[in-house]
Amino acid sequence: MVTMLLALFAGCDDTTFKSHSVEVEGEGFEAVTEVFDTNCVVCHGGANPSAGLALDGDLCDSLVGIEAGSGTLVKAGDAEGSVLVSRITDADSPMPPAGLMAQGNIDIITDWIEAGAVCDPDSAPDPNPDADADADTDDTGAPDGTPSFATIWVDIMEPNHCSACHDDTDPAGGLNLVDQPTAYAALTDPGIDFVVSGNPDASYLIQKLRDDPGISGDPMPPPDGYDLISTEDLNTVIAWINGGAPE
């Protein structure tokens, strides 16, 4: 991995790389995909992508949560802490190698990461939720496509054995996740910032799940015998919170 970090985005010179000046308009994952398609895949694509980093396939699988040397390529919710952002903003060693991309392209990528690096456009937060009072919602009042807590519980929390430590006898951290109703009530308690509806970055649950720097104690799940949840599962929890954390 260290070798990958040192070589990251290397391998194309300014005679090979000709598309770095393509400026994209828009926002969200679709715009991010267009930035990579028009500025990066000429080197990071095909059968032999530069540094082994393919950006012409599933971007989440290639970037989000992927460790490279001393950092993470894309750290959801933390653009400044993402190796990708440090590389595309480094004027001394620019990526693309022929010169940094237009600032608008860089902003598209950093804004996407800060918003949680959500890869499914259908689960991305609405940047202007009050613009259309008639926007489609489900019977919980959440935007269509927002996962429910029942989904979070069945698909993520139970398989990761959260209640093994957070039981009703001696719950770790005082957080009782013994069953679905108890877990929902505990996580969405308005007096505690485990889940801040509509704000994943301020939610302690997300900070622990993605192992944010500066967070005290072990990440969740703990490293002793468990792995961090997958990027897909993390994005599902982020989408749930962005959608208002419906039950």
Structure explained in plain terms:
By secondary structure, this protein is an all-alpha fold. The protein folds into two domains: about 1-120, no CATH class; about 150-240, no CATH class. It is built from ten helices and two strands; from the N terminus they run H-H-H-E-E-H-H-H-H-H-H-H. The protein has helices at about 1-5, 30-40, 60-65, 85-90, 105-115, 150-155, 160-165, 180-185, 205-210, 230-240, and strands at about 65-70, 70. A two-stranded antiparallel ribbon has the order 1-2. A hairpin with a 2-residue loop joins strand 1 (about 65-70) and strand 2 (about 70). Helix 2 (about 30-40) crosses helix 5.
Question: Which short descriptors sum up this protein?
Answer:
mainly alpha, elongated, 2 strands, two-stranded antiparallel ribbon, 2 domains, disordered N terminus, about 250 residues
Decide which structural class fits the backbone.
mainly alpha
Helix proportion range: 25-40%
Percent of residues in β-strands: under 5%
The separation of the N and C termini measures 40 Å
Mean pLDDT: 79
Q: What is the string of SSEs from the N terminus onward?
A: HHHEEHHHHHHH
Q: Cα-atom Rg, whole angstroms?
A: 20 Å
- Which term fits the overall shape? elongated
Number of domains: 2
Describe the sheet with the most strands: 2 strands, antiparallel
Number of strands: 2
Strand order of the largest sheet: 1-2
H/I helix tally: 10
Unreliable parts? 1-11, 13-20, 123-138
